Amino acid sequence: MPIRMLPMHVVNQIAAGEVVERPASVVKELIENALDAGATHVTVDLMDGGLESIRVRDDGDGIVSDELPLAIAPHATSKVETAEDLDGIATMGFRGEALASIGSVSRLEVVSRPRDAAAGAKIVADHGDIGSVEAAASPPGTCMTVGRLFARVPARRKFLRTPRAETGRVRRVIRDLAAAHPGVHFVMTSDGVTRLELPAHRTLRDRLVAILGRELADSLIEIEAVRDGVSVTGVVGTPETARPASTHQIICLNGRPIADRAIKQALREAYRGLIEPSRHPVAALFIGVDPSRVDVNVHPAKTEVRLRDERLIFVVIRDAAREALKQHDLVPTMPLPEVTMSPQPRQLFGSGLTATERSVAPTPPPQTSHVASVPVDGVRPEVRWMQVHDMWLLVEDEHGVVVVDQHALHERVLFEQVLERIGESPLPAQQLMVPVAVDVNSDAAEVVTALTPLARRLGLDIAPLGPSTLAVHAAPVLLVERRVDIASFVEDLVDRAVAMQGADDETALRDVVDMMACKAAVKAGDRLSDREIRDLLEQREAIERSTNCPHGRPTSMRLTLDDLERHFGRS
Amino acid sequence: MALKVICDQAALAEALNTAGSVVASRTPSPVLTCVKLTAGDGRLRLAATDGETAMVLDLDRVEVDAAGEVLIPADKLTQIVRECTDPTVTLEADGHALHIRGDDSRFKVFGFDPQEAPPEAHFDDEGVDCTMDAGTLATTVARSLFAAAAEHTRYAINGVLYHREGKRLRMVATDGRRLAVAVADCGSGDGETSCIIPAKALGLLRRLSKDPDAGVRISVGESRIAFRVDSATAPATLVSSLVEGRFPPFEDVIPKEQDKKLTCDREQLRSAIRRASLLTTEESRSVRMQFESKQLTLSSHAPEMGEAEVTIEVKGYEGDAMEIGFNPAYIADALKVIDDDDITLELKASNKPGLLRAGRDFTYVLMPVTV
Hints:
The complex is a heterodimer. By secondary structure, chain A is of the alpha+beta class. Chain A folds into 3 domains: about 10-200, 2-Layer Sandwich (Heat Shock Protein 90), CATH 3.30.565.10; about 205-325, Ribosomal Protein S5, domain 2 (2-Layer Sandwich); about 330-335 and about 380-570, MutL, C-terminal domain, regulatory subdomain (Ribosomal Protein S8, Chain: A, domain 1). Chain A has 18 helices and 24 strands. In chain A, α1 (about 10-20) packs across α4 (about 100-105), α12 (about 405-425) packs across α16 and α15 (about 485-500) runs antiparallel to α16 (about 505-520). Chain A is elongated and about 95 Å long. The N and C termini of chain A lie far apart (about 90 Å). Chain B has 7 helices and 26 strands. Chain B has helices spanning about 10-20, 75-85, 135-145, 200-210, 250-255, 265-275, 330-335, and strands spanning about 5-10, 35-40, 45-50, 55-60, 60-65, 70-75, 90-95, 95-100, 105-110, 130-135, 160-165, 170-175, 180-185, 190-200, 215-220, 225-230, 235-240, 260-265, 285-290, 295-300, 305-315, 320-325, 340-345, 355-360, 360-365, 370. An 8-stranded antiparallel beta sheet of chain B has the order 6-2-3-4-17-16-15-10. Chain B has an 8-stranded antiparallel beta sheet with strand order 14-11-12-13-25-24-23-18. A 5-stranded antiparallel beta sheet of chain B has the order 5-1-7-8-9. The mean pLDDT of chain B is about 90.
């Protein structure tokens, strides 16, 4: 077969495969154009999930009739003039290929009227065939209609999901763009039914509450940071609002929604220990960096960007989110049942207390022990507390009563302390007089090789003793001090190591420190001395995120004075 | 026949306190929480056991009006007698119950049938292994018991080795991180005996050895050991089952080639250790000791708290300067049980065991903490 130059419409069809994957990507391109044109009102109408038609109307600058043919020609754009301009892209579109691509895989009709023009004009690109400009009635702004998308590209059409699913994707695209442009009114309809209506909001917070859900209104913590030319604003959700999927995360870079793994990772890092590892925090982050420091021209769809200072942005986001969480009072309120006409006191404490009573081991009979008070920090004169059922600490604070799970809190405190110390130097190791032998289920030499780097940092000295036996020569001082059976610790460590194979060093380390903290912490059922309780509560104040144990379970919950008064009929 | 005795309140309270510490705290068998009182021959005998350890105490500061026996829950009886403010209390049996009367108070405590009481501790004069005075025995126990493991696990023994060769008794304990060897001469004894005594029994034995001049006879059987304290005022017998298992070969653990030796003042070292350990935390419980000629510097640091440094004088340090870390509590524990003014430290390297000696009667091996 002779080599030939491809006809232009074929080139555009190939390019379209990269820009235009599905209705959502069409909508994204068209809305970005509208926003670049300064629109304050954008309406998206879908028919049959966008497969039948997609229409995006805006009240932006409009396109003068002479330029309509250029608008849908490839590599024609009003946004970039020279290659140097690519170094500092501030507009959303720039490649000059979106409309051409869309026009090559659908019937694209563009009707537009600049604000000061007397009349509108339209042009049609039908699967690459570009018609001529005709006069058309039009309000100021632009209306783009995409029909029969992928009708002639069956391969692409096959990859589309149901209209319902495609509609969902479109909705998400609009949501993300709307988050970045709170002052723009967005409307989306699907088959004539309004699916999303976001009037122009005065503040970003209002817009985000509208997008993420009213129920989150009180659970969004604002964050703000500027460092070394990187700015971050937005909101993050309180830990208990975390979702099983990352659907409630909106990340925009210079106003452009992006999907960046490093940034999601930075968020996860900020919430480490506050939420279970499988959950995702709610967040809307708007990152601003000098456009010259970002390369958005990585992929035509522009959802991936190359950050020149990826590490810096990671750190700024992580620290900003951490700081915001730290400043915020994260102690969750203990849910009380709604007040009824005849409240039953026994049920007032809800599942919080009774459910856990069941798990009290057959230890000494439940006893209510001493009440004591202690100055905890300079601000409040004293904090009164008591230990109940050798398991819970009840602590008074200005909002009510905080119920603390003594094991979970101590575990959290030890976890943070050990992690901080390991950051400096390996943990001190208590040498053992006679090595402790530990049987393992796998090849001892392999286990030792795999574990040694980690073990050394932990203050654990292990060596193979037999084919499936390890010798422990030294143990972490912490475990010795807390009287943890070293053999069972090492057995668990080996099991964990097998399960963790492939995890990166930091994850593995945290996992193991977590296990150490859990084993070393006071247990439910341990009677604590006044001194121990006082130390623990002081550390609670000192440790940055003590409201959840390393597994993400809460360490404390609050019964608020308001709730108590309401339930006792005092208010 | 119903028991009736008038007792000196203080003596009875003390005896009950001692006997009460034997009984089991949590057990499905209520008789194991009781003390058996037997009156007769001008004496009141208190017997208690938890099934593993049994004790018998004889009180002679009593007036026996009627002989007899009762089996009464130890904690209640102890509390009542302890709280009595009268110089004497009267105990009188009423069936299985016991009346306790002071000048202004009267108690009735229900008990159990004395026939159901577990067997009393009994000392068998035939099998005497050795004899020594109570003071020496108590010291030897104190100098070893503290190093025993707090819990009994697969790998650690919550007991103390009793090892007698001729007239030399060594008591040895270890928790795997340190090992204490206390030596004492005994008044009689030949051949060689070795067994492991549970920590609980030795704790009780110390309470029975308050009169240092009282003679103690020790008899060792197949699976039990018995002590007879021949105190003039409160003679007592303590019997305990032995810990099964093999004690680690302790002679091998004592390092023989320590090339760095020094002597220092016990009180100075004790104070220095206490001060340096102020800035240690649970996860970093260690004090660094830097040895140079004539001086020892102890230092510690906790990242979140700060650091400490204390320097004391030492005598006779030879060899290169060296540094080694120890858990300060382990050193402090040993310094508490010795009364010699000078102690000797023998070292080799920072990752090798250290040795602490006081006179010829106390040897202590300490494993270092390394970073």
